[in-house]
Structures are given as C-alpha cells and as structure tokens.
C-alpha cells in the first residue's frame, strides 16, 4: 500500500486506533495508519481486497442497526446491504454488495467497547475471493481486545 504512515505486517498488533482496544492484522494482509489520521487501512497481500478499521463515537445500538441496514460508501463504491444486520455479544454485522457491480462484496462490523467509542471494520473484495475476506474479518473480530 503506497500510503505514508506507520506500517504493520500480518500478525502485528495495532493498539493506537482506539485507546484501550487492540487488534491484530490478519495473516495475508498488511496495514498502514496514515500520518495524522485515526484510521487504519488494510490490504490483502494475495487477492484484490481492501479494508478500514476506524473509530466512531458511541451510538445507540438501534443507530448501528439502522446504519448497517443502509447503503455504505466505501472508497469509490457504494455498498448496499445484502441481508439484515445481526447483533450478538456486543457485535453488529452485515454483508454488502456493490450497487454498480455485484462482483464486489463487503462486510461491515461494529464492535461495542466499554470506552466512549466503537471500533468499526469494513472489508471489500471481489466475490470470487469472498472466503478470503470472510476469514480476515473473523480474525479481526477474534483478535480484538479491550481493556
């Protein structure tokens, strides 16, 4: 990824996005935190797939349900929900499909934290490699730790 900032390799733990929260870069992926930004950009080393990890202010759970059931802008795409958002164990998640090209799919996940903010993950890839992105999202979720 050709972005100036702090770079992270697969398996490295990132702790600077949300105070008291950390997560690990999934295997087969790398990440960069652009200088001066409070976002982490993720990219796959093996397939055409991108993602973000960022912080959002604390919102009511019904707000996240609504947001994950609406179209979501991602890079130069507009991802439309392909299912109804589900909630369980402090996690909201949904799947998406590109509004203009159904060959691109995405995932949006909101992890509620004890802090004043939530950590959000968004991944997008071609549908032919969706298993790669699904596995990366599961690794992100399972590696997330809050203090």
Please provide a brief summary of the model.
By secondary structure, the chain is mainly beta. The chain has a single domain (5-146), classed as Protein Transport Mog1p, Chain A, CATH 3.40.1000.
**Terminal-residue CA separation:** 30 Å
Low-confidence spans: pLDDT under 50, at least 5 residues?
none
Question: If you average the pLDDT, what whole number results?
Answer: 88
* Strand portion: over 45%
Name the structural class.
Answer: mainly beta
Helical content class: 10-25%
What's the architecture in CATH terms? Answer: 3-Layer(aba) Sandwich
Write down the overall geometry. Answer: globular
Give the topology string: H per helix, E per strand. Answer: EEEEEEHEEEEEEHE
| Backbone CA Rg | 14 Å
Could you say what the CATH topology is called? Protein Transport Mog1p, Chain A
Supply the CATH superfamily name.
Mog1/PsbP, alpha/beta/alpha sandwich
Total strands: 13
| Tally of discrete structural domains | 1
CATH class: Alpha Beta
Structure overview:
With 147 residues, this protein is mainly beta. The chain has a single domain, classed as Protein Transport Mog1p, Chain A (3-Layer(aba) Sandwich), CATH 3.40.1000.10. 15% of the residues lie in helices and 51% in strands. The protein contains 2 helices and 13 strands, in the order ββββββαββββββαβ. The chain has helices at residues 61-68, 130-143; strands at 5-8, 13-18, 21-24, 29-34, 39-44, 49-57, 72-74, 77-81, 86-88, 91-98, 104-112, 117-126, 145-146. The strands form 2 sheets. Strands 1, 4, 5, 6, 7, 8, 9, 10, 11 and 12 form a 10-stranded antiparallel sheet that branches. A 3-stranded antiparallel sheet has the order 2-3-13. A hairpin with a 2-residue loop joins β2 (13-18) and β3. The longest helix has 14 residues, at 130-143. The radius of gyration is 14 Å and the shape is globular.
